User: Which sequence fits this backbone?
């Protein structure tokens, strides 16, 4: 998709991104308003999504089953989730552009790796692995829960609480490198492993 335009997908339509070749948002905005359960990114092979001055906004339902990456190849790029984003990768799906979440991210299987930084105030439900691999991520009043793994592996993650935040990961909170700034009052950290990086509490 190129040329400075905007493509908006509304109900009863569906947004399906598939195939073995790289897809590109080149000076283009893609908006998903559809709540169809058929909406998904299922690319294989070298089926990445490259952003070059690209914007993807999900206001509906979007399911990631691809074990590929959303990459920043130039310009100013952004992935905004204001709806429901489901991660069902068999291995690792990577969002390497800035990612802002005001909706719900539901990590059901595989690993969802966020490496482009971003600002969020939405919900994160983690049944599998949510990984912050690079960049600076500021989560303000986000509700983070689940029996999976919340991992910091190279990023700086700032968990900021102005009164509505909640952290109840009953699985593993893991820091392998990078920094987790844990500013959530009353955060419930059941199982913590630090093999590198740092944990700063009470910011």
Assistant:
């Amino acid at each position: 998709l190129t040329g400075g335009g905007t493509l908006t997908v509304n109900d009863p339509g569906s947004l399906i991104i598939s195939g073995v070749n790289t897809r590109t948002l080149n000076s283009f905005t893609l908006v998903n308003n559809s709540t169809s359960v058929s909406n998904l990114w299922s690319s294989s092979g070298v089926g990445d999504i490259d952003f070059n001055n690209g914007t993807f906004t999900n206001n509906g339902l979007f399911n990631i089953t691809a074990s590929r990456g959303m990459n920043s190849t130039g310009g100013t790029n952004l992935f905004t989730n204001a709806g429901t984003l489901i991660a069902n990768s068999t291995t690792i799906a990577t969002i390497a552009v800035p990612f802002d979440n005001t909706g719900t991210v539901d990590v059901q299987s595989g690993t969802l790796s966020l490496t482009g930084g971003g600002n969020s105030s939405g919900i994160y439900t983690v049944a599998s692995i949510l990984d912050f691999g690079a960049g600076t991520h500021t989560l303000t009043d986000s509700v983070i829960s689940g029996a999976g793994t919340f991992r910091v592996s190279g990023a700086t993650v700032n968990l900021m609480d102005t009164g509505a935040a909640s952290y109840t990961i009953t699985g593993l909170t893991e820091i392998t490198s990078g920094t987790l700034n844990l500013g959530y009052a009353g955060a419930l950290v059941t199982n913590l492993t630090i093999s590198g990086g740092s944990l700063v509490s009470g910011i």
About this structure: The longest strand covers residues 84-95. The chain has a mean pLDDT of 95. Residues 46 and 135 are 24 Å apart (CA to CA). The two ends are 42 Å apart (CA to CA).
